[in-house]
């Protein structure tokens, strides 16, 4: 018997099958992006020992139940908060902070290491307003850190890179640069402008 | 009789569709890879607030999600309109958070537990009382790394209209 060639499989419907799958995945896809403001909660400590902090080193921000902002006991608009926080953090009242460019007002914070922002809210405060305030305060720290990064970077060989870019580059696997050195710079900036943001838990 | 037949009228030749499956498969693979299957069906309204100082969450498998917001329209007759917490696929009470965190921790490898982050996906119309309760509960179980989920945008969008 003559050798018969195997009959070819008709692949015409393959496209249909692929389309079916494609449509299924198209419909179920949610390009979810998880991003947000990262925070660390304070641990619950047993000993209720009050650390005495000078009043001038605390920047109090209160958001009341009507979403109004009370900064250092004065009403303030949200858009002015970032500048006020920058001014407070960058004050450098005791002169030990040689990279600060603030007013060196003796009645405001001593140095960025001692300066603490205390955020307080009420139960009726809306979450949106709370996030807005958090955002502005984190923004204030980032303003200072970015500025410091632009000063410090060129000395260490990282020109024209602000703090945010430094962090992104550090995480980026494709970035070709000295990561160890970059980590050092990031760490130094974090020490120079530590994020001391305390959230008061009302009971 | 001429040997060469005249071409038939101006019929357009059919487009070759042999490479169509390849193209479709390419798209298919892209979507298969990019797809993240939704883990939870949301029972609540979840409009996240906007912020412009946000960071991306890196390791998705090391994130625990706590949702909060007012129940969506189908559930309002049953659960009211006050903001509630959702854990996994059902409404939960604040006191259930501790058990939820413990279960999540147990499902991860032990050495990864310290890196777990809690992502708070809270509706922007919720009030801070609820969020404060969640935070207090998280402190009790020592889950201190949190992330307030927000979308990229200007904070002025958070204002109530």
Describe the structure.
The complex is a heterodimer of chains A (203) and B (161). Chain A contains 5 helices and 6 strands; from the N terminus they run αββββαβαααβ. Chain A is α/β, with parallel strands linked by helices. Chain A has one domain (55-200). A 5-stranded mixed beta sheet of chain A has the order 4-3-2-5-6, with helices on one face. In chain A, helix 3 packs across helix 5 and helix 4 (163-171) packs across helix 5 (179-192). The termini of chain A are far apart. With 161 residues, chain B is an alpha/beta fold. Chain B has a domain at 50-151: Nucleotidyltransferase, domain 5. Helix content of chain B is 26%, strand content 19%. Classes of the chains: A alpha/beta (203), B alpha/beta (161). At the A-B interface, helix 1, strand 1 and helix 3 of A face helix 1, strand 2, strand 6, helix 4 and strand 7 of B. Strand 1 of chain A pairs antiparallel with strand 2 (55-56) of chain B.
């Amino acid at each position: 018997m003559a050798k018969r060639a195997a009959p070819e499989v008709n692949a015409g419907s393959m496209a249909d099958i692929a389309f079916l799958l494609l449509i299924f995945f198209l419909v179920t896809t949610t390009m979810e992006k998880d991003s947000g403001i990262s925070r660390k909660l304070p641990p619950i400590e047993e000993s209720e020992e009050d650390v005495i902090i000078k009043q001038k080193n605390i920047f109090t921000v209160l958001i009341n139940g009507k979403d109004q902002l009370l900064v250092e006991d004065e009403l303030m608009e949200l858009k002015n908060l970032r500048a006020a926080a920058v001014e407070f953090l960058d004050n450098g009242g005791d002169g030990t902070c040689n990279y600060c460019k603030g007013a060196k007002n003796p009645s405001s914070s001593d140095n960025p290491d001692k300066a603490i922002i205390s955020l307080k809210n009420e139960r009726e405060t809306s979450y949106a307003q709370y996030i807005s305030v958090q955002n502005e305060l984190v923004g204030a720290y980032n303003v200072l850190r970015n500025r410091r990064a632009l000063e410090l970077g060129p000395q260490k060989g990282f020109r024209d890179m602000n703090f945010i870019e430094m962090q992104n580059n550090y995480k980026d696997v494709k970035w070709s640069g000295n990561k160890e050195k970059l980590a050092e710079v990031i760490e130094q900036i974090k020490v120079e402008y530590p994020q001391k943001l305390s959230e008061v838990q009302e009971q | 009789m001429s040997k060469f037949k005249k071409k038939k009228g101006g019929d357009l030749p059919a487009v070759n569709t042999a490479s169509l499956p390849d193209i479709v498969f390419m798209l298919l693979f892209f979507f298969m890879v990019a797809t993240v299957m939704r883990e939870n069906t949301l029972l609540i309204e979840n409009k996240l607030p906007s912020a412009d100082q946000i960071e991306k969450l890196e390791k998705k498998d090391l994130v625990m999600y706590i949702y909060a917001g007012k129940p969506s329209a189908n559930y309002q007759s049953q659960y009211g309109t006050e903001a509630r917490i959702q854990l996994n696929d059902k409404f939960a009470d604040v006191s259930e958070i501790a058990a939820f965190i413990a279960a999540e921790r147990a499902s991860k490898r032990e050495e990864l537990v310290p890196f777990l982050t809690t992502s708070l996906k809270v509706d922007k119309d919720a009030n801070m009382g609820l969020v404060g309760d969640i935070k207090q509960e998280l402190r009790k179980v020592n889950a201190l790394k949190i992330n307030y989920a927000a979308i990229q945008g200007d904070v002025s969008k958070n204002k109530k209209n």
